[in-house]
Amino acid sequence: MKIDKSPFDSNLLVGLDQSELLLSKIKKWGACLEESNVWVPNTIFVFAKVKGFDVEKLKRFLRSNELQEHKRSCEFELSIILIVDNSLPEAWSLLELGISDVIYFKEVNEFVNYCKDLKFQNSFIKNILSSQLVKSNLIGCSTCWMEFLKEIITASISGKGNIFLYGETGTGKELLARFIHTIDKVRSKNNLVILDCTTIIPELSGSELFGHEKGAFTNASYHRDGAFSLADGGSLFMDEIGELPVQLQSEFLRVLQEKQFKKVGGNFYKSSDFRLISATNRNLIQMIKNGSFRSDLYFRISDHSFKVPALRERREDIPGLARYFLSKALDAPLDETPHFDKGVMEFLMHRDYPGNIRELKQLVFRIAKNHHHHHLVTPGEVPLAERAKIPKTIRFEKEGHLYEIMKKNLLSGVNLTEIKRQTMREAIKAALDINNQNKHLAARSLGITVRAIQKFLQKENESNEEDSKEEGKD
Ligand SMILES: Nc1ncnc2c1ncn2[C@@H]1O[C@H](COP(=O)(O)OP(=O)(O)OP(=O)(O)O)[C@@H](O)[C@H]1O
C-alpha cells in the first residue's frame, strides 16, 4: 500500500505496520501546507487485523511527538479511524488516546464501499457548502455555523428520519427548513407544506390537517386536501411545534407512526409519506415535564435534533450578514453595496440581539432608510433610538473570561484592593492609548477627572520606585 496516493481522494488507508513512515509524512504535510499542489489527507484510516493486533504499537503511534505536535498546532484537520476485522475490547481506551472511531469490517469490500460512500458524501457536502444556494441564502462563514451546516446537510441527504430544529427566535429555523427540503433529492420534487402551529385551533383545524370530504360538515360543499395529503412524497414543516394543542398531539403521533390518516367525514384511510421538519423556540423537554407535550411524540419528531446557534454564538458572521441585508435593503448587488464605517461596524458587532438574525436584519433595513448614496454607512445614519442600545457594561470576547481571571488571581492570593488597582491601571492605559495620550479626553471617556488620573499615575510611579529600591537592596 502506498502512502502518498490515496485511492479515496481525501482519505488515506495505511497498515499499522506503516505507522513510522506515516509519522514522517504527517511532519512533511504540516511543513508544506502552504504549497497548494501538495496532497494532504483529512482522514487517515489505520488498518489492523485483530488477530495479532499490537495495541502498544498503536498507542506509541498516538502518543508520538509528531502526532501530538500536529494536534497542538492544528494546522490541518486530521481524524484517525482504526479499521479492524473484528470486535476490539481496547476500543474505548483507544478513543481516549485520540482515535476518532473504531470501525469493524468483515471483508475488505465492505470497507471499500464504505469509503466510496464517505467520499461521495464528503464531496456532496462540500459542493453544497460552496453552492450558490448556500452562499446567497444562508449567510455565515464562522466555524460554528459551518460545522452546524455540515451536520444539517448530512442528516438531510440521508433522506431518512424526521428533523427537529430548536433555538431562539429569529435564528433562521424556517430558512433552514426550506433548505433541508431543497437539498433532499427525492422530496424536493414534491411539495414543501408549511404549517404554523400557533394558528391551529383544535376544534377548527381538523380539516386543515386531515382535509375533509364533501358534505362532512355544513359548509363543506367540496372536498379538500389537508396538510398531510399535500405533503405526500415531500416535506411537512411544522413551525412552532411546541404550540400544537395537546388534543391533536396523539392524532398527529398516529399519523407519523402509521403514515395513514382519515379525512374529516371520510371512511377510508389514506396513506401519506412525508419527511417531517419541525421547529420551536420553546423548551420541549420542560414542556414534557409539565405535561404539555407528549414525550412519545417528541421522540418521533426528533430522529435528528439540532440546536440552531444564536447570533451571539457566531458574532464573526455579523459583518457578512449585515452587508447581505444592506444589499437587499438597497436593492444593490453585493459587490456594489456600501461598506459599514468602522464605528458603525463596531456598534453592530457589540450590540445585543435578543431577536437574533431577524433583529439584525430589521436594524440594517432601518439604517438603510437613512443612507444617502455614499460608499460608506456612517454613524449618523444609525437611527437615534438605536444608538441608546450601545451596551454600557464591560464586554469580553469569551463569556466568563473576567470570572476566570478573578478566580486565578484570588487563588494566587491577590486581594480586591490589588485587583482594583490593576484594573484601574489597565483602564487608564487603554483610555490614554485610544485618545493619543491626551489626558483630558482620556478622563472624559473614563468618566473621572484629569486630577484623578494624575494622582493615580503619581502613586503608581512612587510605588514602582519603592519596588526598584527594594530590589536593589536584595
Ligand atoms: N443565515 C442566514 N442568512 C441570511 N438570512 C438569514 C439567515 N438566518 C436567518 N435569516 C433571516 O432572518 C429572518 C428570521 O429567520 P427565520 O424566520 O427563519 O427564523 P426562525 O428561527 O424561524 O424564527 P422564529 O422562531 O421567530 O419563527 C428571516 O428573514 C431570514 O431570512
Automatic annotation (TrEMBL):
GO terms for molecular function: ATP binding. GO terms for biological process: regulation of DNA-templated transcription. PANTHER family: TRANSCRIPTIONAL REGULATORY PROTEIN. This is Sigma-54 interaction domain-containing protein. Keywords: ATP-binding, Nucleotide-binding. Pfam families: AAA_lid_14 (PF25601), Sigma54_activat (PF00158). Residues 138-369 form the Sigma-54 factor interaction domain.
